[in-house]
Amino acid sequence: MVWCSGWRLASAVSNAGGLGLIGSGSMHPDVLRDHIRKCRKATEKPFGVNIPLLYPQIDEIVGIVIEEKVPVIFTSAGSPSKYTSRLKDKGILVAHVVSNLKFALKSQDAGVDAIVAEGFEAGGHNGREETTTLTLIPLIRKCIDLPLIAAGGIAGGESMLAAFALGAEGVQLGTRFAVSEESSAHLAFKQYILSAGDGNTALSLKKLAPVRLMKNHFWEQIQALEERGASAEELNALLGKGRAKMGMFEGDLIEGELEIGQAAALIKEIQPVSTIINEIIEEFNLAAAGLSKLKF
Fold first, then answer.
1. Are 20 and 47 in contact (CB under 8 A)?
2. Which contiguous run of DSSP H or E holds residue 114?
């Protein structure tokens, strides 16, 4: 949710009954502190921060969330053992995002409070195993006792119910909220997402760090390089710096990096967060009622 989830989106999700998360991956430390303080003013409900552990200023970022007494931290993109104990010693709940069973077990050993199991349908950076949510959730559920949060491809109440049936206790949504009114993503990017159909996203840059992108001119350049067997250095040279900001925050739909999940194909309008959450709960209840009528 880099460039999409600032204090406005996080506070709106929390105010509507979810747990809003500030995406710190696109923020310098002072910007993150500002977003945390604005979020606290905008909601009396709990909220959290997602911290990619490969962040270059990670020690400063962790220090800020401790100083600001953020109640919940979701860590990702790194070893769960690095900061979990330090955060928990300060009374902070820690969830770690994983894409395979190996890291789920490592997260459990590290003492996290919950695990987010993210299938490769998700937008942004993904696991190299390309395991789907439908397979990943029961795979992890059989091996861990911690609360399990499903992510990847979940955009409505029906998919939320399916995740619960597979053993999850909660769900994490990114793509659906990236298109919300409160998302900080550029309007042009949101509208481009609405035009997405089946197959309009793809997992790319596998030699660097796999990331799911919407297809555009930049993606076509990546595809051409990958098809001819380009090296990681060549791909890095094309990627450069600031591609995600260019596409998602500044609205360059041609040369920008457009990170979004497969669930983009299901989204047809830009809505307020409160409407999105109400729709999801209504869909969930209707789907659950329908399943209760099945007989075998």
1. yes
2. strand 114-118
Q: Is 153 left (phi over 0), alpha (psi -120 to 50) or beta?
A: left
Place of tokens 């900080």: 184
pLDDT of residue 126: 83
pLDDT at residue 93 greater than cutoff 80: yes
User: pLDDT at residue 293 above 90?
Assistant: no
Q: Which DSSP letter does residue 73 get?
A: E
What's the token pair of residue 227?
Answer: 């098809």
Q: How far apart are CA 45 and CA 70, in angstroms?
A: 11
What's the distance, Cα to Cα, between the start and end of the chain in Å? 41
Contact (CB, 8 A) for 133 and 119: yes
Tell me which amino acid residue 46 is.
Answer: P
CA distance 101 to 144: 9
Q: Which helix (H) or strand (E) holds 52?
A: strand 47-52
- Supply the pLDDT for residue 296: 77
Alpha-carbon distance values, 236 to 20, 157, 174, 183, 208 (Å): 32, 39, 26, 28, 8
The pLDDT assigned to 209 comes to: 86
